[in-house]
Design brief:
Bound molecules: zinc ion
Order of helices and strands: EHHHHEHHHEHEHEHEHEHHEHHHH
Distance between the termini: 10 Å
Strand order of the largest sheet: 1-2-3-4-5-6-7-8
Strand content: 5-15%
Shape: globular
CATH architecture: Alpha-Beta Barrel
CATH class: Alpha Beta
Helix content: 40-55%
CATH topology: TIM Barrel
Largest sheet: 8 strands, parallel
Structural class: alpha/beta
Number of domains: 1
Radius of gyration: 18 Å
Number of helices: 17
Number of strands: 8
Amino acid sequence: MSLPKAELHLHIEGTLEPELAFELAARNGVELPYADTDALRKAYRFEDLQSFLNLYYELMAVLRTERDFEDLANAYLARAAAQGVRHAEIFFDPQAHIARGVEMGTVVEGLWRALARSEDAHGVSTQLIMCFLRDESAQSALETLEAAKPYLDRIVGVGLDSAEVGHPPVKFREVYEAAAALGLRRVAHAGEEGPPEYIVEALDVLGVERIDHGLRCMESPELVARLVRDRVPLTLCPLSNVRLRTVDVLADHPLPAMLDAGLLCTVNSDDPAYFGGYAGDNFDSVQKTLGLTEERLRELARNSFLASFLEHDEGRRERYLAEVEAYEF
Ligand SMILES: [Zn+2]
């Protein structure tokens, strides 16, 4: 839990806890179709990715103002800090907000109000990654990148999320080329529910530097060899995989086999309010259920900082890595 770590796969909208959802609903006069927080918590039960996404988008209706996004990010950062997170690269989904009439500026500036004082308030350094919804059109992604141009000093990179199957990476070739031309870092969800070919495409066509999830690479020895050789980081989310039935039970998770194969794996929380735990909870669960040794846990923490977009501040990366090596279990 307290092992110093970076969180590299975290959707800020997925940190909306039932209590905060009700607080923001009351503040904004939004009616939620749940009697109370207990009823809402019961709704946090999913069959698959799509049934989760339906609730995820429904609850976003409570996020209206800069202050709402600031409160959301602050609540996450406080919880993350309590679980050993020292650095967080945070995803947000602007299209889901713009579609509801909430402007890009409201989202980015609201989040930024929390991020700008995160180091002082929580001891957590942060970066912001803007994700495109892959079940929306390529044109919509291009318009989203255009809308983000006034805020690029606040955004380190772009990502690709939401329903994977049927929406291959190649659909977003143009917007990733445009993002690269703007100097943005690139990541993408691939190989969660989609096939290993989507991982190859994300690397070859979109030029991504990290793969989010990527666990289905294990179906292709050739792809595993490539990911090991090129040291491509994978941002795994074990509790998310169980909740969304990507794996049946945590004991079946391929993480130990992936580490044995030499893959650069990291452990993250994805949508922690919905999936039963934050970054430390994920570490705790894989330690207990998969029997990872202390050296394996240290490797995962080390990997998280090695895979971070900290090239602008290598001294910071070195300090975080030193904290990992000095950590006593
Ligand atoms: Zn995700």
